[in-house]
Write a structure and sequence with these properties.
216 residues; seven-stranded antiparallel β-sheet; 1 helix; 32% strand
């Protein structure tokens, strides 16, 4: 039976790991995500409005809770559009002007699966939002970026909305279900080395702390 996933794919198809939410306590603010933007909302003059607003195709059915250190964050995966799945699934984005009619806006947007993406590829995997501070423009946002180094090894970065590397980790893929590209990452090697490689701001280690996409 053909399944149509409109703007959304469910979590099992995302290769997301099951994360433990009971991390060790860290000092307050240690791994706090920076605000998404530095302009005022609402804008008070035309000068407050940026020249470009950026958007992403996100998977609403995949929304869940992840953690960064001891901070629980909202995780919204990027829509997966994986051509190599052995089962017949269609992932589409919807026209926001015809949302309720479920009319297709584009079929060409989306990321790849962890399991099927080619080595050497870097992709945006999900958006994480820190709900702890809901005071106007101070909402913290991070981008989870994945690079497949070789058949089993992946590097996972947490970046700010401005592209600064907040955290970096290296892991090996543990395949849970190859038919849908589902898996989790296990930390391997010297994590300090990977943090230095990318100039990561935080000393977040998936062996010791909660880290998006890693299981312990």
């Amino acid at each position: 039976m053909r399944l149509t996933i409109s703007l959304i794919t469910f979590l099992a198809f995302l290769g997301m790991s099951k994360v433990a939410l009971h991390a060790q306590d860290d000092e307050p603010g240690r791994y706090e995500l920076p605000p998404a933007h530095d302009f005022s909302l609402p804008p008070t003059s035309p000068a407050d409005i940026p020249n470009v607003f950026h958007g992403l195709p996100l998977s609403l059915d995949g929304i869940g809770v992840a953690c960064v250190g001891s901070r629980k964050v909202i995780n919204i995966p990027v829509l997966m559009n994986e051509p190599d799945l052995p089962i017949d699934i269609e992932a589409v984005t919807l026209d926001p002007m015809n949302w309720h009619k479920r009319e297709v806006f584009s079929k060409k947007l989306g990321r790849r699966s962890l399991y099927f993406v080619e080595p050497g590829t870097t992709m945006l995997y999900s958006v994480i939002i820190d709900p702890a501070d809901l005071q106007g423009q101070n909402i913290g946002v991070g981008l989870v970026v994945v690079k497949r180094v070789n058949e089993k090894t992946y590097e996972v970065l947490i970046e700010s909305n401005n592209g600064d590397v907040l955290a970096a980790a290296r892991g090996e893929l543990q395949v849970l279900d190859p038919s849908i590209g589902m898996g989790t990452l296990k930390a391997i090697g010297n994590q300090e080395e990977i943090r230095k490689k990318y100039g990561a701001r935080w000393d977040l280690d998936p062996n010791e702390h909660c880290y998006p996409m890693f299981s312990r």
